[in-house]
Amino acid sequence: MSLGLNKKYAPMEALPAHQLPIGREWQYEPKWDGFRCLAFRDRKRIDLMSKSSKPLTRYFPELGEALVAFKAQQFVLDGEIVIPIKGKLSFDDLLIGIHPANSRIQKLSRLTPCLYLVFDLLVDEPGKSLVNLPLEKPRKELEAFARKFLKSNPIVHLPPATSDLNMARRWFNAGVGLDGVIAKRRDLPLAPGERTGMPKIETQRTADCVVGGFRHLEKQPLVGSLLTC
């Protein structure tokens, strides 16, 4: 069975929030400072796609090699590409890697290899879509997938998730390589491409600046980005 590398699978979008939601129905995960990336595997073909459906495959050859080494012949993963430098995650090094010269890309992949932190399994090894199932089921499938394929992989990792609010608060206050905390309802499906039921609480960084313009958050009456100087 072939996935055909269909593009209907898109990252589930989060909504900004001011505080962590409380309740047994919530699962908390670290929010990483990196590139959101969907990884498609169909037999020997690997496709890495950004949140905006831009191809990332050529920029992270080490990740492509790690994924094609899996014995699983098909899957769709949702995760974050990060680059650790001296114990911290470096977004600048990620940006440097988006380079037109292949020789430069290959050099950077050796000097500063990326990590791929997987937090959702959208399509499993047999080719079954999991996106319409309550999160609790895909999470168990993802953990089983990780035990089977990720143990000895230096590039692809399964980061932690918890239902413990105190642990989530410790993650939020840690600040080392984290951009905040994501909360997901365990009783709701993943809803790829939508902004629904998944609040994100980001760490706050302050600076004095002049705002020259802004753009609304897609399909929301909120500020999505600012042009500052």
Describe the protein:
- This protein has 5 helices and 13 strands.
- 21% of the residues lie in helices and 34% in strands.
- The chain is of the alpha+beta class.
- The mean pLDDT is 87.
- It has helices at residues 61-68, 91-97, 102-111, 136-149, 165-174; strands at 13-16, 26-32, 35-42, 45-50, 74-82, 84-85, 88-89, 115-123, 156-157, 178-185, 195-202, 211-216, 223-228.
- The protein has one domain (13-228): DNA ligase/mRNA capping enzyme (D-amino Acid Aminotransferase, Chain A, domain 1, 2-Layer Sandwich).
- The strands form 4 sheets. A 5-stranded mixed β-sheet has the order 4-3-5-8-9. The chain has a 4-stranded mixed β-sheet with strand order 1-11-10-2, with helices on one face. The chain has a two-stranded antiparallel ribbon with strand order 6-7.
- A hairpin with a 6-residue loop joins strand 12 (211-216) and strand 13 (223-228).
How are the SSEs placed, and which strands pair?
Blueprint: E1 13-16, E2 26-32, E3 35-42, E4 45-50, H1 61-68, E5 74-82, E6 84-85, E7 88-89, H2 91-97, H3 102-111, E8 115-123, H4 136-149, E9 156-157, H5 165-174, E10 178-185, E11 195-202, E12 211-216, E13 223-228
Parallel strand pairs: 1-11, 8-9
Antiparallel strand pairs: 2-10, 3-4, 3-5, 5-8, 6-7, 10-11, 12-13
> How is the main sheet built?
5 strands, mixed
User: Mind telling me the CATH superfamily name?
Assistant: DNA ligase/mRNA capping enzyme
| First and last CA, distance | 52 Å
Oligomer: single chain
What is the tally of beta strands?
13
Provide the β-strand percentage band: 25-35%
The CATH architecture classification is 2-Layer Sandwich
Ranges where pLDDT stays below 50 over 5 or more residues in a row are: none
What is the tally of helical segments?
5
- Mean pLDDT, all residues: 87
Taken in chain order, the helices and strands follow as EEEEHEEEHHEHEHEEEE
Task: Categorize the overall geometry.
Answer: globular
CATH class: Alpha Beta
Query: How helical, in percent, are the residues?
Result: 10-25%
Structural class: alpha+beta
Radius of gyration: 18 Å
Could you say how many structural domains there are in total? 1
CATH topology: D-amino Acid Aminotransferase, Chain A, domain 1
Query: What spatial order of strands do you see in the largest sheet?
Result: 4-3-5-8-9
